[in-house]
Design a protein that fits this description.
18% helix, elongated, alpha+beta, 607 residues, Jelly Rolls, eight-stranded antiparallel beta sheet, seven-stranded antiparallel beta sheet
Length: 607
């Protein structure tokens, strides 16, 4: 009779404690450190069989035992949202209540994703008061395992009432209540916000334990950029005057916008809807809840929305924007969402049913009505922020302070910088957007240009103008800052832009400025070469005089030689005596002389 009364009381209390929440531990797999040798049938599973009279039991621990710790756990079968843990310890009646309390005193409860309590969350630590034999505690967390742990360490001093020898653990029922992952509320019938990490939220309030990157707030729903913002659409359905564009951003899923139908039986072939976010924002995600009419009309509705496109633009013209999504050929879900980490002011929904186009199977091509109940555009409302809490600035050199809402990488770099985070400046004589432009190479003293602007901050080399020193001097000028005029004697008044050198006009010469006339050039040359000329002429005169002297010398020698020969011949004739006795011989000699004389003095002989 007493057992029945206890069971009824336990059942009643359990009903009160677990009202509305799921019993997560009932009949789930269990394990314990060491079953009692004196009770071979006191299995770990008895603590979750929902029979109060059957209890698990472990070997004793304590100062007189070889064991100093004990444990028991239940596998909830997956990650669960825990709300409450109730333990019914073995009760032997009032006579043994204090002993039983002293045995269980000091125990701990953990919720963990593994069987190791050290990996888990400490829900409860008993002490120094003795626990009740019907123990109950709230423990709002998530986990896979609930672990009971106790110890009696021989070197530790325990509070009064704690038993330190013969400490037997007997658990008759362990009831873990809560909800499956992803839901919350007293009846576990509310869905955790979409942006909770792993869909884990507080089992009572539904607040997220952690947010997905790019989301903030208790429900990870802050920076809903589209909420109650101005919206517009192509043409509101004439048979639904309350179906205006703003219904899609009013936060009420039961009110929807609706446009006139498009398609093969309509004069209109395209339709659109857009929301003005009020400014250029950093968008992360777009969610669309299309109108549903139940399972019977699901395919029809999906076929109507099939083929739609989503754009993010800085104007109301989709062509100026970024295509975030283009549906097809598969039919879209009625609860659609897409990540689109871009910047923009307008989010534009667009669809069409054009004549002459063959659409995929399932596409509805006539009476295509667009009905959108809610569009949720999320991201960071502040322009220069990043990371999942929208509170970190984008890197300094992101163009227009635009970076990815998740990881902070720059969409584009400011001129002069490159890299994912735009933290590298241009090198190797490059500058500008993406460092794709070359410096002019004409900066003063071969200096480099500014890596952002390409300007030569210290000025230009001779003959160049402009901030980038990429312009040569105007015709007729040269030199530093191009302020020197070319020589008027340059042909066509054109000279080299950096040093003024030029081709001379006729009648002028001189390098580099053509500042010498041709006449002046001859006189100048005579003057300049006077020494050389005189030396040359002197040399020629000396040569000529030498030749004349030599000639005269040889002529004179020749004449002397001739005269000498004549004298010798004359002396020979004079010194020869006449031969009286032989006239013929004398005559012969005379004739020879006459012959000889005739040869030398022809005129005298003729006389």
């Amino acid at each position: 009779m007493q057992i029945v009364a206890v069971w009824i009381l336990w059942t009643f209390v359990s009903t009160i404690v677990t009202w509305g929440y799921d019993d997560l531990s009932s009949s789930k797999p269990t394990n314990q450190y060491r079953s009692s040798g004196s009770c071979s049938h006191c299995y770990a599973d008895y603590a979750v069989d929902r029979i109060i009279s059957t209890c698990m039991r472990t070997d004793d621990i304590g100062f007189t035992s070889s064991d100093s710790i004990t444990w028991w756990y239940v596998d909830l079968g997956g990650l669960k949202s825990v709300y409450n843990i109730r333990i019914q310890f073995k009760d032997y009646g009032d006579e043994y209540t204090k002993r039983q309390k002293g045995r269980f005193a000091g125990f701990s409860l953990y919720v963990s994703n593994t069987t190791d309590r050290h990996d888990g969350y400490l829900c409860y630590k008993d002490g120094p008061e003795l626990p009740p034999l019907d123990f109950n505690t709230s423990c709002i967390t998530h986990g896979h395992y609930v672990i009971f742990y106790n110890e009696r360490l021989f070197w530790r001093q325990y509070p009064i009432g704690y038993l330190t020898t013969g400490v037997i653990t007997e658990l008759c029922e362990v009831t873990v209540t809560g909800c499956s992952k992803g839901v919350y509320g007293e009846s576990c019938n509310k869905t955790c916000p979409d942006n909770c990490i792993e869909h884990k939220c507080d089992i009572i309030s539904g607040t997220c334990l952690e947010c997905l990157p790019g989301w903030v707030g208790d429900f990870c729903d802050r920076d809903l950029l589209s909420a109650n913002k101005p919206a517009s659409q192509y043409k509101t359905a004439t048979n639904c005057y309350s179906c205006d564009a703003n219904n899609a951003v009013d936060g009420n899923i039961s009110t929807c916008m609706r446009t006139e139908d498009i398609g093969s039986t309509s004069l209109m072939k395209t339709t659109w809807w857009s929301v003005d976010l009020g400014d250029i924002h950093r968008i992360y995600n777009i969610k669309i809840q299309f109108k549903g009419y139940g399972d019977s009309f699901s395919l029809r509705q999906r076929g109507r929305f099939a083929g739609f496109s989503l754009f993010v633009s800085n104007t109301t013209d989709k062509e100026n924007g970024y295509l975030c999504y283009k549906n097809g050929p598969e039919l879209p879900t009625l609860n659609f969402k897409i990540d689109c980490a871009v910047h923009g002011r307008y989010v534009i929904f667009y669809n069409e049913r054009l004549d002459g186009i063959t659409y995929p199977v399932g596409y509805v091509t006539n009476t295509v009505v667009t009905e959108i109940c809610e569009v949720i555009v999320t991201g960071c409302s502040r322009q220069n922020i990043k990371e999942n809490t929208c509170d970190m600035p984008c890197p300094d050199n992101c163009q227009e302070d635009r970076c990815n809402v998740l990881n902070g990488t720059c969409e584009d770099c400011s001129p002069g910088f490159i890299g994912q985070y735009c933290n590298k400046s241009c090198e190797n004589e490059m500058y500008g957007v993406n460092c794709k432009y070359h410096c002019s190479g004409h900066c003063l003293n071969n200096g480099t240009c500014n890596f952002i602007t390409g300007f030569c901050n210290n000025g230009c080399s001779f003959g160049y103008l402009g901030d980038m020193c990429n312009e040569t001097c105007n015709v007729g000028y040269f030199g530093m800052h191009c302020i020197q005029s070319c020589s008027p004697n340059c042909l066509y008044d054109v000279c080299r832009h950096y040093d003024g050198a030029c081709t001379c006009k006729p009648g002028w010469s001189g390098s580099p400025y053509c500042n010498i006339t041709v006449t002046e050039t001859n006189g100048s040359n005579d003057n300049d070469n006077e020494s050389s000329y005189i030396a040359g002429m002197s040399f020629l005169i000396i040569i000529n005089i030498s030749l004349v002297v030599a000639f005269l010398f040889f002529v004179r020698r020749y004449n002397k030689l001739v005269k000498k020969m004549f004298s010798l011949q004359y002396a020979t004739i004079t010194m020869t005596p006449p031969q009286q006795k032989n006239n013929s011989n004398y005559e012969q000699h005379y004739q020879e002389l006459c012959v000889a004389e005739t040869a030398y003095h022809n005129l005298s002989l003729t006389n």
